[in-house]
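Why do we bother with holo predictions? Because pocket geometry can differ from the apo form. Keep that in mind while you read this record for flavin-adenine dinucleotide.
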Amino acid sequence: MDNQRVFNDLRNSLPTADVRLNEPLNVHTYTQMGGKADVFVFPSGAEDARAVVEYANEHDLPLTILGKGSNVIIQDGGIRGIVLNISTLDKIERTGDTVVAEAGARIIEVSEYALKQHLSGLEFACGIPGSVGGAVYMNAGAYGGEVADCLESVLGVTKDGQLVRRKAEELDLSYRHSNVDETGFLVLEATFQLKQGNYEEIKAIMDDLTFKRESKQPLEYPSCGSVFKRPPGLFAGKLIQDSGLQGTRIGGAEVSKKHAGFIVNIDNATATDYLDVIHHVQNTVKEKFSVDLEREVRVIGEPLKKKDSEQ
Ligand code: FAD
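The structure, written out:
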């Protein structure tokens, strides 16, 4: 790809978007790791976002969608093509008992908005640091609740730039999975069906979940949350703990001493360090318990090329 040409094209055709060349991605992820994006775009509105999808499709360029970067490990060689970060689309509003949120809004803020509106159903999301789009993509969930429980529909853009609405049932939502990726769909907006509730009761649930999260999770360090999915009938964290892996460190990445399901960036870890810890954990748990730990976090981008790392 001719990065400069793509940058110029997008700058000229989207004058109000924030288009950047060679953008460092570590500042856009929760793990604070990752190389650079060839071309990086913050759209100024939904139409900009749609136009970027259409442009990438027409020119056959790779397009990566980034939300808040809380469930991705971006490799040290960065991401080729265009990275579209929809964090700038963050409006939240109420219509009847539904809350409509743009995909770049934080799901935590949507949960807090619902509380202020005395609407119940999104309490589980009060500590999940991702965007609405990322939460739909991952069918994010916690403490017994998940997006699938209250998502009514999404508005989004198909690969070829068409604006369409999809009902939640069409997204094939299951444990930390949707078909958003397979269909190359960009989520622009989500509608959550909630129900009238009591402010104090909703707040009490959210306070309790926040207390549990803050007391158990190593939130003082950069991380991507739980690295692995729960194996059927088991807990990844318990298997890792019972394998004696807490505190295992490679470079700047370490299996958290506070919560074994987390790998934390304790000292300028590279994505390579982080992935090495992941592989070590997977191999050890497999050896000890014959269980395959499947990653929940997505790994995107490319590793550093040898000649780059030698420079
Ligand atoms: P990103 O990490 O930016 O992207 C994740 C994937 O979603 C990527 O493949 C991306 O392409 C895709 N994507 C993002 N936005 C869109 C869009 N608009 N359209 C199409 N695709 C899109 N997760 C839980 O489920 N439960 C938890 O309790 C939880 N706790 C966490 C705690 C911590 C401290 C951290 C760091 C993470 C935690 N997570 C948890 C993981 C993460 O917050 C969720 O998976 C979240 O939904 C990811 O959203 P994001 O915007 O950060 O997505």
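Residues 92-197 form a domain with the Uridine Diphospho-n-acetylenolpyruvylglucosamine Reductase; domain 3 fold (CATH 3.30.465.10).
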